[in-house]
Amino acid sequence: MPAGARPIAPAGSTLPRLAAEVPHTFALIDPSHGAEGITRQLEELVGHLSPESIDLLDVGGDILARGDEPTLKSPLADAVTLAACCQVNAPIRLLVAGPGLDGELPPDEPRGMLGSLVHTFTAKDVEPISSVLEWHPSEATGMLAATARGVRGTCEMRDAGLPVPLTDEGPTVHEVDLDETLSRNQLARAIMATTTLDEVEAHSREICGYSEIDYERNKAAWLKEQPPVQLDPQAVLSELDQFEAEAQNRGVTHTTFRRITEALNLNGSLREDLRQLLISSRPEKYDAPLWRITSTAE
């Protein structure tokens, strides 16, 4: 990130731990007052921090979506941030890192919009945040780091098991035209004048057919109803063998710990316990921060 710029992070349970491990200033952005509220907050931050430059960075490139793509899963957060940034009274550069790594658009979809290559991440770039990637749940960021370390193949992610190619494009960062992206993103254009999160969600349901926050609400309610369970190591490793065999038949070479957790029908709260079990039992399969399906020889 250029000198003077500051990362701006959304609220989340991982933020305090992230802020403790990364030497940057973080700011919570409250979306409850829609795009107009976020615009005000960003302008206040700009006035307070006086950054030399401001970058809006999206990992994967789903910010480039129109809104009607069948593979799109989480357009709301990107769209409301894009809508706000386009109204901030300061120059903002839009960057896309790891095009296609979020699995939300076909790999070729965002390629035509990518501008100049700004940077290609290497293993050296990733090293300072290696400890964060040991626990941080972002699958797209994990795959970005893995490709920077040289991992190549196909990674299966999320509960739906989306296959994501891990290629030489994975660790790249490209500049993208901010106005062109807004013109393409139907949801971002529709919510520019919103003053509540309810309005944003209503537009998302109308344009995209759903609100990703509804999905999270339903999932949280379901998890709350699940009885507390503990891992049965023998059963887990046996089910893992079956999952890996089936994944390998699908041409998968790697997967994420979130994908394994959900494929084995385990509560998300057990993800860290599962990760520790797998790494301690089969350390040779850990391609940090991903899990390798295939053997080294393959």
Segments where pLDDT lies below 50 for 5+ residues? Answer: 1-12
Tally of separate helices: 13
- Major beta sheet, specifics? 5 strands, mixed
Structural class by helix and strand composition: alpha/beta
What is the chain-wise order of helices and strands? EHEHEHEEHHHEEEHHHHHEHHEE
Helix content: 40-55%
Count of distinct strands: 11
Biggest β-sheet: strands ordered side by side in the sheet: 7-6-9-11-10
Tertiary shape: globular
The average pLDDT score comes to: 90
Question: What portion of the residues fall into strands of 2 or more residues?
Answer: 5-15%
- What is the gyration radius calculated from CA atoms? 20 Å
Report how far the terminal alpha carbons are from each other.
Answer: 37 Å
Could you characterize the architecture of this molecule?
The structure is a single chain. The chain is of the alpha/beta class and about 300 residues long. Among the domains are: about 10-120 and about 170-190, no CATH class; about 235-290. Helix content is about 40%, strand content about 15%. It has helices at about 15-20, 35-50, 75-85, 125, 130-135, 140-150, 180-185, 185-190, 195-205, 210-225, 235-250, 255-265, 270-280; strands spanning about 10, 30, 55-60, 95, 115-120, 155, 160-165, 170-175, 255, 285, 290. The strands form three sheets. A five-stranded mixed sheet has the order 7-6-9-11-10. It has a four-stranded mixed sheet with strand order 3-4-8-5, sandwiched between helices. A two-stranded parallel ribbon has the order 1-2. Helix 2 (about 35-50) packs across helix 3 (about 75-85). The longest helix has 17 residues, at about 235-250. About 35% of the residues are buried.
